[in-house]
Amino acid sequence: MKRDLEIAKRIKALREGLKMSKSELARQSGVTTTAVWNWEENGIIPRYETFVKAATALGVTEIFLRTGLPAFAPKAAEVIRTIRTIIEEARSEIADIMGVPLDKILLKLEVSSS
Fold it and tell me: Measured between alpha carbons, how far is 108 from 25 in angstroms, rounded to an integer?
């Protein structure tokens, strides 16, 4: 089980800001109230499908809930395009330097919240 206390803080702050109970968030996300408690208090990250449902229930994008980046979908899409461009340019440069075909270069990106 992955843990992330920054995501936990965002979930709790958003829920409380909406004056939404844990049980209401649980109902809208398709989980138990205990699951929501675990998200907020233990930093347990829900499965992707549930995470998206929780973000929707809280009125934000999944990206905002995960990263804290602005909640507006157009901004999030712009950030994703920028990251994708950077990664593709890096792949191309690495392929050129190494003298291998571009399809042989695979980059993985990990973002830490700390």
Answer: 33
Cα separation, 94 vs 44, whole angstroms: 36
Please tell me the distance from the alpha carbon of residue 104 to that of residue 59, in angstroms, as a whole number: 40
Place of tokens 């980046």: 69
Query: Quick one: tokens of 4?
Result: 């992330």
* pTM of the entire predicted model: 0.60
Closest CA to 45 of 91, 73, 3: 3
Domain 5-67 adopts which CATH fold? 434 Repressor (Amino-terminal Domain) (1.10.260)
- As given in the structure block, the two tokens for residue 7 are 């995501």
Q: What is the C-alpha to C-alpha distance for residues 12 and 36, in angstroms, rounded to an integer? A: 9
Q: Where are the domains of the chain?
A: 5-67, 73-104
Q: Reduced to 3 states, what is the DSSP secondary structure of residue 3?
A: strand
- pLDDT (tens digit per residue) in 10-57: 999 999 998 999 999 999 999 999 999 999 999 999 999 999 999 989
